[in-house]
Design a protein that fits this description.
heterodimer; A: 327 residues; alpha/beta; 8-stranded mixed beta sheet; 10 strands; 49% helix; 15% strand; elongated; B: 357 residues
Chain lengths: 327, 357
């Protein structure tokens, strides 16, 4: 599937996964790949933590909105801009109150702790209003694609369940209407899809499988391809007898080094076998396409690594089949 | 403090914090098991164990009482999987003046929101359960596995969750008008409540008011309880342990955590770094040379495996060493990467050994 096609197949991509699977990095790579496909991208963080800024070489301290990549033409290809935005639950609630006729009472609500009562009285309201903000961005059509770095899985299900919850709790009024509108957005695959992220290990794979059923069957939200992060590159020749290697290469290896080669080869083979087992299990349990990103060997992940992952991601998307209902 | 075994031996309470995906639940269970092996009566409160670990511990379902796990240790090992809502119900019953008051609260929808969905409730109930187990006198050590959180010390705020709600003006307004203080206060109250109703709907406000009214007379009990729980968390024999992995982001979290611990004037505790890659014993430069020289030979892949592992393990070591250096008063334990998830007691015992080695 052509990346340009893929990144215009939905207005909103929600990137969700268990903590520690590289969700933020994946969201950054998706945003970068979409930008290269010419889309202007808004990358939204909802955790109140600006983990994405350093991934674009930007300052992570206290921004609300910042353009980390300006629209540009590189080697004759138009790259769309990338804008980061942080929406915190409290800010979403305050802003919603302000823009829905409660302007005068917002500051009073904030200082008296009334917001807490509002939030407690209507569980899910903050999550709903974050999604409401995202829907507003979608309506404005300022950006071609909105990528959301969602709360960690588990929380992601709650996050996506919030519109239905609020719709049922607040039977009428502006809040009810907001919930219905957001629900329309998240359940329409032409407008919104969820991309789940995992790593090829037992517990994260289990959690991904559970989450995907909850999201698709219970919530009726559509899933895009699964991103499997940190996939160790395969090596076929690990079983070669390392005892003879030194003579082959005319290299003086100490006994310790020979042993280390054997140990490292075994260790890698063991991890590859476990990884293959988990990838197979994932394929068997979930009929979703998989996009695999390599494990990066290096001390930290920054702009270069994100660029590298974006390249792999684009290639992997390119290799995906075109959806059947698409001409 | 010299090592993890000593830290465990000197603690009555161990609280394991950290982000998700770093093996926090397994570390918590292994810490309790290590204490049982040292002859103590240890109980671990888990939040959301992976299924196979829960099965290994014999706690496949939510429970509110510890399940004792038999095994070849001198002490006692028990585990429970926290049932947040039932624990909250128990707390309300304990503080209520009579069944009628308790029932009124438990049946209220606003209360159900607080006990079921309010963020922080899980932490709050974990602390409550900890407090209850600790004061029962049945346990020498209670280990708590906390919910994943970005702020490792959010746990310290947890006991105040309900009292913070009770400090709310609505509570004061509602209870004041109940006591017959009509007039200015009541008119203000009506105003606030009307505004609130415009936002969330009248039914929702009625439920909230009913909740606050039903709560009257219980607030002092809850405040005292919060105070004593906070005292327990700040006790010398309560240790906070951050569970991390050698990845940069979780180690940053660990550093932040240690700073917070110090700022909160709590006892310096420990950092457990799981998933450490094994050392190859070969210098990274030499590994790169070997990789270059063996390229295009049948040993190329083995050499790549060696170079990858050596470089990655060295990076891990450097990052963890930096952390240990910046926190000389904390115990830093390195636990090697295991090739499989822990799913039986033998696996858990192996981790307990690694923790206390």
């Amino acid at each position: 599937m052509h990346p340009g096609h893929f990144f215009s197949s939905s207005n909103v991509l929600i990137v969700a996964g268990k903590g520690g699977v590289g969700k933020t990095v994946t969201a950054a790579a998706i945003a970068t790949a979409a930008s290269r496909a010419g889309r202007s991208v808004l990358l939204v963080e909802v955790s109140g933590r600006s983990g994405a800024a350093p991934l674009f070489g930007a300052d992570s301290k206290g921004y609300e909105e910042s353009v980390v990549f300006e629209e540009a033409e590189i080697d004759g290809v138009r790259h769309g801009s990338i804008t980061l935005k942080s929406i915190t639950p409290d800010a979403a609630l305050m802003e919603w109150l302000e823009t829905h006729g409660f302007k005068r009472i917002v500051s009073r609500f904030a200082t008296t702790g009334m917001l807490e009562v509002v939030a407690t009285a209507t569980p899910g309201i903050k999550d709903l209003l974050i999604l409401g903000r995202i829907k507003a961005f979608e309506d404005e059509e300022t950006y071609d694609l909105i990528v959301i770095d969602a709360p960690a899985a588990g929380h992601a299900v709650g996050f996506l369940r919030s519109p239905a919850g609020v719709r049922d709790a607040a039977k009428t009024g502006v809040l009810h209407r907001q919930a219905v509108e957001v629900l329309e957005m998240i359940s329409d695959p032409d407008r919104c899809k969820v991309m789940l992220v995992t790593i090829p290990e037992e517990t994260p794979v289990n959690e991904l499988i559970e989450t995907s059923f909850a999201i698709e069957e219970e919530l009726g939200v559509h899933l895009g391809p699964v991103v499997v992060n940190s996939v160790l590159p395969g090596l076929d020749g690990l079983e070669h007898n390392v005892g003879t290697l030194a003579t082959d290469a005319d290299l003086d290896l100490t006994d310790d080094e020979r042993a280390a080669l054997a140990t490292a080869a075994d260790f890698r083979a063991g991890r590859l076998a476990l990884q293959a087992e988990q990838l197979d299990r994932l394929s068997a349990a979930l009929p979703l396409e998989q996009v695999r990103l390599p494990q990066l060997f290096g001390s930290s992940i920054g702009p270069d690594e994100v660029a590298e992952l974006a390249t792999v991601l684009s290639e992997a998307i390119d290799a995906l089949p075109e959806p059947e209902d698409d001409e | 403090m010299t090592g993890f075994a000593e830290l465990l031996a000197e603690s009555h309470v161990v609280i394991c914090c950290g982000t998700g995906g770093v093996g926090k639940t397994t570390t918590s269970a292994a810490a309790a098991l290590a204490a049982a092996e040292a002859g103590r009566r240890a109980c671990v409160v888990t939040i959301d164990p992976a299924k196979r670990l829960a099965d290994a511990l014999g706690i496949g379902e939510l429970s509110n009482t510890p399940t004792v796990i038999d095994g070849p240790w001198d002490g006692t090992l028990a585990a429970l999987m926290l049932d947040t809502e039932s624990t909250f119900d128990e707390v309300v019953r304990r503080h209520a003046h009579d069944d009628e008051q308790a029932d009124r609260i438990l049946g209220n929808r606003f209360y159900k929101n607080v006990s079921g969905t309010l963020s922080g409730t899980q932490d709050y109930m974990a602390v409550e359960k900890l407090s209850e187990l600790y004061s029962s006198g049945e346990w020498d050590l209670v280990v708590v596995d906390t919910p994943p959180t970005r702020d490792a010390l959010a746990f310290l705020e947890a006991p105040k969750l309900l009292t913070r709600l009770l400090d709310n003006p609505i509570y004061k307004i509602v209870t004041a008008s109940n006591k017959g203080l009509i007039g200015v206060a009541n008119r203000a109250a009506q105003g606030v409540l009307r505004q609130l109703a415009r936002v969330v709907g009248a039914t929702v406000v009625d439920e909230a008011v009913a909740f606050f009214q039903a709560f009257q007379g219980m607030e002092d009990g809850f405040r005292e309880r919060a105070q004593s729980t906070l005292a327990l968390l700040g006790d010398d024999r309560t240790s906070f342990i951050l569970v991390a992995s050698p990845r940069g982001d979780t180690l940053d979290e660990a550093r932040y955590f240690l700073d917070r611990i110090r700022a909160a004037d709590l006892d310096a505790s420990g950092v457990v770094v799981n998933r450490m890659l094994p050392s190859t014993g070969v210098d990274a430069k030499r590994a790169a040379v070997i990789q270059m020289r063996l390229a295009d030979t049948p040993g190329a892949d083995a050499a790549t495996a060696l170079a990858d592992l050596t470089a990655a393990a060295a990076d891990d070591d450097d990052r963890v060493a930096d952390l240990a250096e910046s926190a000389p008063d904390a115990v830093v334990v390195r636990v090697p990467l295991l090739t499989d998830d822990v799913h039986d007691l033998d696996g858990l015992r192996r981790i307990a050994d690694l923790l206390t080695a």
